[in-house]
Predict the 3D structure of the following.
Amino acid sequence: MGIHKLMTLIADYAPSAIKENEIKNYFGRKIAIDASMSIYQFIIAIRTDGDVLMNEHGEVTSHLQGLLYRTARMLENGLKPLYVFDGKPPLMKSGELAKRKERRQKAEAELTEASEVGDKELAERMAKRTVKVTSQHSDECKRLLTLMGVPHIVAPCEAEAQCAELAKSGKVFAVASEDMDSLTFGSSILLRNMMMSEAKKMPIREIHLNTVLETLNLSHNEFVDLCILMGCDYTDTIKGIGYKKALNYIQEHKKIEDIVRSLDPKKYTPPEDWSYPEARELFLSPEVTPGIDVDFKWGDADEEGMVSFLVGEKSFNEDRVRNVYKRIEKSKGQGSQARMDSFFKTIATPESSKRKVDPSGVMGSSKKSKIASASGRGRGKKR
Amino acid sequence: MFEARLLNGSLWKKIIESIKDVVEDANWECSGSGISLQGMDSSHVALVSLHLKSDAFDPYRCDRNISLGLSSTNLSKILKCSSNDDSVIIRTSEASDNVSFIFESSNSEKVSQFDLKLMNIDSEHLGIPDMEYDSIVKMPSNEFQRICRDLSLLGESVQIACTKDGVQFTSSGSIGSGKISLRPNITAENLDDTVNIELNEAVLLTFALRYLNFFTKATSLAPRVILSFKTEHPLVVEYQIQDIGYLKFYLAPKIEDDDTKQTTTPD
């Protein structure tokens, strides 16, 4: 899933691109969310005793449970979520998808075996691997979102790419996803941990693509090549090149073609028929609906509709559903608080710009270390 | 080398107490012209801009521009260790990663020194353009504090309307509503008690009372407060600290959502 070790790379080499924030500070922000990914995570994560939540007809309800509470939490905090569903999978992903299918089948076989011999732990683990999001799950989620007054759209192809397009075109403030692909697709801001359960009290991590690129001194095209080298969903990688080497090579040679030429053939062999140009193409110009053509609006929640769907059909507790409705409604109509940055523009501080003299490139060029090293002062990090 | 001594040390205490609810960590920029600070709250709704002139200090020495990253909470803790009639010296050098606060009692019998570790703070600096405001209200600072406190009993936000007849503060919530009107009054015996309205254009704006109540902690710094309004712009709440400098708070207004737009006009 996503780009292998990209988060580690950013945390190591461009820590200033990551900020932590509380969810309440995102009030009024429009946030695009990869719905299919979220549904998948809900089905995996929301379980009791290792089993998915079900109603009395044996229908899975974990995804609805997750969607209901997480969406309500965002609305309560004044966020404006927009869900984006996957369209058709891209051809390039067929390899990855086939692999996933194979893994799922293998897990299913192991699951049957494990439950026969009574190995509960293994069975539980395998059960999670057999999870597949069906179109029924998606349709139910779309229905629930409509009832909650939350907009959703279907991407022509990958939802992740569509989310990125919405962020790039300024239609939304950021993309909320756990999938680091979003950055490769060009999302200006990626938010992680948005769908975490409230009980975990995880702060939202905000990752800024521009800061990543500036700090690593890469263009977006070079960044895409870097991601392909590190390992993405669409093609293979060169064995023996991890994220550190990949970064060094990209900074030195700029693109995969030149890296391949410079490599010692005895040490590293690029995969046969390596389809990196296609993967690159997919990241740089994916099939998406242009941001200006996408229209969405947040409406009112339908209390009776929510009750009849969730309580009537899915056996949710009625009081809880009505409670969620009340929470959603309460958050509305307070008028929205504007932010300073919509009136005054950020300017570079004269202080820090004067101190931008650190020539050491990647390793220590985060804003913080610039100040420290240039002023010759070894200040302790904020604790 | 940087050194600044403020004879009236209790001013520092008051300043920090007024800003610490808004700005958690901030860079104090020290230069030849004095000490200044700009910072926002974590949700970027409010902004503090402070400037203390170098003349206010005796002595004031700043060999090179220097920026001191400090946490307001820690600063407040340290300053609470000073007595009200102490003088306060702030001292640091380029090579140091500490800043010293030295408190000297008025009879020079007691000297305390506290060192605070400096922090690296990644702060955004906003450019605030000079602009023409639609209306400017000057009034006693304690009166403004009182109004904000009283109205926050009723609601979360206050609607402020400035017209040629005066300025009106309204708030409403689940228990009811409140309305406080002030008429311009320039004949008060004490000049500090007057309410003065300069009006270019009538305005109607809504603000979160929570922040206004943070700002009015600065009331003890100045007898007067200056409120500058401009339609669809942040409010400026300004306290002129006599002979020392100024403390300005900016607050972004609340804006009605597009789909629930109301058509109220100032009456």
